[in-house]
Amino acid sequence: MNNSAINILLLDDEQFMLKLLRRMLENLGYTQVSTCDNGHAALELISHPDDCPNLILLDLNMPKMDGLEFVRHLVDQHYIGSLILISGEDERMLLAAEKLARAHKITVLGHLQKPASPEGLASLIKKWAAPLQIEPRAEKKVYDADEVRAAINKGELVNYYQPKVLTSTGRLVGVETLVRWRHPRDGIVFPDQFISVAEAHGLIDDLARAVLTGAFAQFKLWEDTGLMLRLAVNLSMDNLTSLDFPDELAGLAASAGVPPQMVELEVTETRLMEDLRIPLEILTRLRLKRFRLSIDDFGTGNSTLAQLRDLPFDELKIDQSFVHGALENEKLRAMFDSSLGLAKQLGMEVVAEGVEDRADWDFVRKSGCDIAQGYFIARPMPAADLPAWIQSWQKVCPASFNQAHIAIP
């Protein structure tokens, strides 16, 4: 990368800091550097296309217009460059500011606490890349109830499976079932485009039945080849309003020859339940029938601790927002450790979601967490793709399988 090609703006109300940073940048070979000591002057500069910086080094605590207000104005001006935060504020403030900027879809390369070092500055600037010319993203298509009903009746819903592995050995122990809609015109449609429609129009039980029937059939195909995998299936809270649901589910499993103890029912509760009586009865009866219960996205709901107190969960899934990057983020690590410790004290198995890279994998393995899933391990895939994934995962984690000889349909 040609350092002189980057147009950098320094925004700080301290003249000494502006001079210091400018000298650091020049010593690193960055020659197109401008400075502003207040947000209003910086916004005026940015409003001229020829002078608009590719990268802004931003202080947060400034008079008249602080850094967070400045970010909001960047959004209004449709700024497409990148930010580096350089501030005397504490780590938690810097992380919160980073998250806010990213929520506004502004690229943040990272942050440094004052006084910044040349090495730290160089490391972050190396992450800079010229923004791509991205076509405006089309809004997601909204499907109506009749289309979703027809998809269920025509068998257009298909299951994808995301592997879950033991952190101690890397061995595959189960899969999470994730429904997709194979639309005849639109291709693969993701559940966020049709699950809420099914919930709103009384179709969620029919949808769950289709997902479970397909997953149970796939379980038997895997079992016939000698591969025993726990099968995790997501339930809507709306599935837990029918008192007949436990008996119906037990009947589906029995008809397919699937042992209930090999089925994990994942429940996400992000809505505060005003009346817990029916869900409590249904979940407890499912547990009595030996189905395993898993609380998904732990830490993001409204009544998480009450759920652990009141409901007989076997497994806790730590939400990906507390896993990815936890190795380098003290706050995330504290939340992860707290969730893990609580679950262990309650005798629950723990799954870390959102293991996105090698750093996440290494962190989770050393943490004592039982199971991991995420894109570093595998993305959700059709059942037919599992054999190829097994072969590739063996190269990442050679001790993970004693099942390589199994021919999986």
Task: Give the SSE layout.
Layout: E1 7-11, H1 15-27, E2 32-36, H2 39-46, E3 55-58, H3 67-76, E4 82-87, H4 91-103, E5 107-113, H5 118-125, H6 145-153, E6 157-166, E7 172-183, E8 187-189, H7 195-200, H8 204-224, E9 230-235, H9 245-256, E10 263-267, H10 277-288, E11 292-298, H11 304-310, E12 315-318, H12 330-345, E13 349-352, H13 358-367, E14 371-372, H14 386-396
Parallel strand pairs: 1-2, 1-3, 3-4, 4-5, 7-9, 9-10, 10-11, 11-12, 12-13, 13-14
Antiparallel strand pairs: 6-7, 6-14, 7-8
Helix pairs in contact: 8-9, 9-10
Characterization of this structure:
This protein has two domains: 3-125, Response regulator (Rossmann fold); 145-313 and 379-400, EAL domain (TIM Barrel), CATH 3.20.20. The two termini are 48 Å apart. The longest helix has 21 residues, at 204-224. It is elongated, with a radius of gyration of 25 Å. Strands 6-7-9-10-11-12-13-14 form an eight-stranded mixed beta barrel, surrounded by five helices. Strand 10, helix 10 and strand 11 form a beta-alpha-beta unit. The protein has helices at 15-27, 39-46, 67-76, 91-103, 118-125, 145-153, 195-200, 204-224, 245-256, 277-288, 304-310, 330-345, 358-367, 386-396, and strands at residues 7-11, 32-36, 55-58, 82-87, 107-113, 157-166, 172-183, 187-189, 230-235, 263-267, 292-298, 315-318, 349-352, 371-372. The model is unreliable at 133-137 and 403-409 (pLDDT under 50). The chain has 14 helices and 14 strands. The chain is α/β, with parallel strands linked by helices. Helix 8 (204-224) runs parallel beside helix 9 (245-256).
